[in-house]
Amino acid sequence: MAHAHMGGHVAADETANLIAASKVEGTSVYNSDGDSMGSIYDVMLDKSSGQVAYALMSFGGFLGMGENYHPLPWQKLHYDTGLGGYVVDESPDRLKKAPTITRDYAHDPGWSRRVNDYYGVPI
Amino acid sequence: MAHAHMGGHVAADETANLIAASKVEGTSVYNSDGDSMGSIYDVMLDKSSGQVAYALMSFGGFLGMGENYHPLPWQKLHYDTGLGGYVVDESPDRLKKAPTITRDYAHDPGWSRRVNDYYGVPI
């Protein structure tokens, strides 16, 4: 297993079961129609459990002050190898109306409950 | 809650319960004697469960080819607010001898078992 097999190799920042957070960042996000929605800007971890709680999706372009993110519960994402990105298990219409947070999200402690309620995912 | 309270505010990339992966990266790592060991270069996520499995600790300096990381099982780290970094719950001596991986770790699929065995943490 010292050498990668052609076609079956993985990048240096992942293994069969693991992926680097830095590799997740920048990955494209699609809705269930296969339309590109943006890309993952960062991943939020639960401090105590070490569980990935949210991927923050940005809408492309430079992230200046006031720009918004879509926090996507990790459970609602699955990786599509054909698309080479994450698909959100949510209708495109509902995804469009999903809660956003600003860059200053630390000052809005209620956002995670709002987001999970919207997606129907337990906190 | 639009404005931070002095002394009680958190950075924009964390909340009381959540922290951005990008914020974990670069955080200092100490041994149980309080000696600085390096800093977190990246975080490895379990693809299926979304659980943080390892923090990859680097030893400072520029990460060129051939440089090694210490993969630290997430369960062995705790955050010390006094030190402002993570402490590894392992004796400094054992930590020094802990398994390292190279940047090409994808081509060495056995490393996670080796690391977990060393630290006595179930996979």
From TrEMBL, chains A, B:
Domain of life: Bacteria
Domain PRC-barrel residues, every copy: 18-94
PANTHER family: BLR1072 PROTEIN
Protein name (record): Photosystem reaction center subunit H
Source organism of the structure: Chelatococcus reniformis
Lineage: Bacteria, Pseudomonadati, Pseudomonadota, Alphaproteobacteria, Hyphomicrobiales
